[in-house]
Specification:
This protein has 13 helices and ten strands. By secondary structure, the chain is of the alpha/beta class. The chain has one domain: NADP-dependent oxidoreductase domain (TIM Barrel). Helix 2 crosses helix 3 and helix 4 packs across helix 6.
Length: about 300
């Protein structure tokens, strides 16, 4: 598994990371998560990303890999509690970071990220100061912002963050021009979320879950030929596209299925997409994408 240095940090990360939302929202069992993460760590995974709002995800991860803490970089996010109710008061943020440490069974994080707070909140600055306090107290080694569009652009421009987690996929390419060139210039670590666009092309009809609907509609319009063929080829092309984008260091993919991470990792063995194939996907986006197709949180 290829590894890349995450921006200007000292973290060298596997290009495929594990995202913890599915195990929380889909009520995975502790035994399932232990099998899933043990197998992934054995196969070369060294990035685990989660959030306080992903139900019991932090607890499940903490129990599953507590004995292997030195083998991976641990990221989580703060600002949204249960039900996605935002609370951006500095004291509340620090309290929830401490809670995340307890749930994850560790004394420090490698990266704490503001979880999609608004541009207005970022500009006020209190939320950034809270994360800087967490770093000063040794609760985290680095601080980051998880979000998209103009808020993500500001997060890079303000100069306070070590990393940006943002949406980059065959169905979500705003960041490729809006934020990633500046992130590269500033040596900001970039974590791609939703890198396979929720595999939304697999649905014949528009999904009922809102999480899939925007990407489903976009992919119907984009009509990439490879999404209509063999499932593994489609997923591999989507993942390789994201990781071929300049400035991406790791792509976070979630699953509840033991063995799925290793399967996805094997799809990446072919390396970057050929330049011609990458440019075809970019050209199709430029041809079809509407102005409203901004980064999806």
């Amino acid at each position: 598994m290829e590894r890349r240095r995450l921006g200007n940090t000292d973290m060298v990360v596997s290009v495929l990371g594990f995202g913890g939302s599915e195990i929380g929202y889909q009520n995975a069992t502790g035994a399932t998560v232990a099998r899933l993460l043990t197998g992934a760590l054995d196969a070369g995974l060294n990035v685990i990303d989660t959030a306080e709002c992903y139900d019991d995800s932090e607890i499940l991860i903490g129990k599953a890999v507590r004995g292997r803490r030195r083998e991976f970089h641990l990221f989580t996010k703060c600002g949204h509690g249960s039900g996605w109710r935002g609370n951006w008061r500095p004291k509340a943020l620090l309290k929830t970071i401490e809670r995340s440490l307890e749930r994850l069974g560790t004394d420090h994080l490698d990266l704490i990220q503001l979880h999609s707070c608004s541009l207005a909140e970022l500009r006020r600055g209190d939320v950034i100061s809270a994360l800087e306090q967490a770093r000063e107290r040794g609760l985290t080694r680095y601080i980051g912002y998880s979000g998209d569009s103009q808020a993500a652009r500001f997060a890079i421009e303000c100069g306070h963050f070590d990393a940006l987690q943002t949406s980059v996929s065959i169905a979500d390419q705003e960041a490729i021009e809006l934020t990633l060139p500046l992130a590269r210039a500033r040596k900001i670590g970039v974590i791609a979320k939703r890198p396979i666009a929720n595999v939304a092309w697999q649905y014949k009809k528009k999904p009922t879950e809102s999480y899939y609907q925007d990407y489903w509609s976009r992919l119907r319009a984009l009509d990439y030929p490879f999404t209509q063929g063999e499932a593994d080829i489609a997923v591999a092309t989507a993942l390789r596209f994201t990781l071929t984008v300049p400035g991406i260091h790791t792509a976070i993919v979630g699953t509840t299925k033991p063995g799925r991470w290793q399967h996805n990792a094997a799809l990446l063995e072919a390396g970057a997409l050929p330049a011609s194939e990458f440019e075809r996907i970019r050209a199709r986006w430029r041809e079809v994408a509407e102005r409203s197709w901004i980064g999806q949180t």
